[in-house]
Design the sequence.
């Protein structure tokens, strides 16, 4: 099963991808996670990407397309994958089509998670991430059992630099201008599945499960 999770920052793509990994046993491929790891490790990729990420802008298409072309060839992706945060522009979506054609496969579902903009700002400003395993929490909506500590691995929690209010507005503008046209692109192809992304994490997972198993 080859799936794209589409939606604005804060819609819950990463959280839902983790549920889908457990449910379908296919990997989550997150360009944001790959880029953040590169920044942490100080690799050439990280140095190139960092400024764009800190400003809430997109990293150039050429860079992220290269990452995905390599990642989707890996063994763990042969049975399917969940793309989280890619594609984010029309040229990325077109490049993905050709990468998949070369691998003789195609996207089965594009799940678009929809949440209104003010709720996204509240979700993003309260979001905290684990340094160890990348799990995400929210100070109000999904707090860890012990403040500042990951429930899953005991790692320390931190706030992403780009989850500060000024950068959040910029990321939402970038989403509106550059990424939201992908909704029409995939609707025309007949692969778009729209999901109400409001409410609690379990309810949203249940909606995704229903559309992917055809039981809605
Ligand atoms: P995310 O964790 O998906 O919110 O991504 C964090 C940041 O990484 C974004 O604001 C971009 O700067 C960069 N990024 C992640 N995925 C992409 C992509 N597909 N295209 C361009 N930039 C990306």
Sequence:
């Amino acid at each position: 099963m080859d799936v794209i999770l589409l939606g604005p920052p804060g819609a819950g793509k990463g959280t839902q991808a983790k549920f889908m990994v457990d449910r379908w046993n296919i990997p989550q491929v997150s360009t944001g996670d790959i880029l953040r790891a590169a920044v942490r490790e100080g690799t050439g990729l990280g140095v190139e990407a960092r400024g764009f990420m800190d400003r809430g802008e997109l990293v150039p298409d050429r860079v992220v397309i290269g990452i995905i072309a390599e990642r989707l060839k890996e063994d763990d992706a042969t049975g399917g994958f969940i793309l989280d945060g890619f594609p984010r522009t029309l040229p990325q979506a077109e490049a993905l089509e050709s990468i998949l054609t070369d691998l003789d496969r195609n996207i089965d579902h594009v799940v678009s998670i929809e949440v209104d903009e003010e709720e996204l700002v509240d979700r993003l400003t309260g979001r905290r991430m684990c340094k160890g395993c990348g799990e995400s929490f929210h100070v109000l909506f999904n707090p860890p059992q012990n403040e500042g500590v990951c429930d899953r691995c005991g790692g320390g929690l931190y706030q992403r630099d780009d989850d500060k209010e000024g950068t959040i507005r910029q990321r939402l503008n970038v989403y509106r201008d550059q990424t939201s046209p992908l909704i029409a692109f995939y609707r025309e192809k007949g692969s778009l599945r729209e999901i109400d992304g409001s409410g609690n994490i379990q309810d949203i997972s249940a909606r995704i499960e229903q559309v992917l198993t055809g039981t809605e």
Notes: Strands lie at 2-6, 28-30, 81-84, 109-114, 127-130, 136-138, 157-158, 192-196.
